[in-house]
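User: Could you write out the 3D structure of this protein bound to magnesium ion? I've included everything you need below.
Assistant: Certainly. Input first, then the structure.
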Amino acid sequence: MTDSATIRGVAILGATGSIGASTLDVIARHPSRYRAVGLSASRDVDGMEGLCRRFRPDLAAMADPDAASVLRARLADLDGIHVLSGEAGLLEVARASAADTVVAGIVGAAGLAPCLVAAEEGKRVLVANKEALVVAGDLIMSAARQSGALLLPIDSEHNAIFQCLPPQAATLDDAGVERLVLTASGGPFRERDPGTLASVTVEEACAHPNWSMGRKISVDSATMMNKGLELIEACRFFGASAGQVDVLVHPQSLVHALVQYRDGSTLAQMGNPDMRTPIANALAWPERIAAGVAPLDLLAMGRLDFSAPDGGRFPCLGLARDALAAGHGATAALNGANEIAVTAFLDGALRFDRIAGVIEETLSAMDGEPENRLDALVDYERRARREATASLKRWSH
Ligand code: NAD
Ligand code: MG
């Protein structure tokens, strides 16, 4: 029996996004277990106002100060919702005392500081924000070790790995794990004639065959940089070496990842491609709660296909592997350059097939290795953003 004393407060960073919507959908199915006590967004006042009216959080933060002022005025008729603004506001939501769980669902390195704060505060942190792990994963993991925070991955592949690992193992080696295998759908251009990639439109790139997601991650899926970021995420999260993580293209997106053990066993986690499954898994872990996701019907599906990724068609995957081998500076720079290139593509300022070129040029322009400290990594990532912006001018049409 659950009563109000055991209702868990959840703070959702990136509440107006796709991860935010999936999380709030799961929470709304379990009002006796969870309450959304804090919400944050960038500047979508209409979306945030609707969420505040429906979920009545204690705290609502807008990263954009003007948007915060508008929200505050719009919510004047409601009692008890404190509207916060700017990065300080996001951090306040991440450390809210009423929240025992924080969902890191902001897109991009903008979510790094709040994710780190939630880890430092000893929260249960549901990590969707892979860019935070790519830029400063070791720092987030070690903050969690020090504070006792429970970090749970909700990126579907990483949540699948988490589910296939024994709960107590300190290291992969202790657990007898030899390899981690991430599956990838291959995105919308898995079979498209590579000669036509120059003319890809934003709508085509964002039309993922299996998952409905925000625009940035949809473009990352179309270039397969998403899988590159996830390779890095897997190494940082699970302490795997680069050579221990493989990628398999699996167009049906039903097997989300596999863990291979030294005794010859391979465990896989399967399910329909719906983010509510990993979110519900991490919210309730080690219990299991309903997520509103239809059970997997393998008979209806009929077959599961697997193939090796095509490195020629998807150069971003190789760039991510190279960055992972080069070190923390290179992975931070990879992320910064990718964010700049994807934004330019979404704004119509860069051709789809030139995204990889901007990233490659940025990485070769970077020198020196930053210390593995937050300020140094963030500075290095910002420098990469400036290099990428300069490179863009050369590649833009
Ligand atoms: P989205 O674009 O749908 O939502 C992003 C959210 O972040 C929004 O609420 C937005 O207001 C907020 N935001 C954006 N920029 C911000 C800033 N500068 N400061 C503060 N808030 C900001 O994105 P999404 O698809 O929900 O993805 C969120 C994260 O989760 C990404 O890192 C993505 O890679 C990861 N992820 C998403 C999915 C998915 O199915 N959508 C799956 C796995 C991982
Ligand atoms: Mg994923």
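The pocket of magnesium ion (ligand 2) is lined by residues 155-157, 230 (CB under 6 Å).
User: Perfect, thank you.
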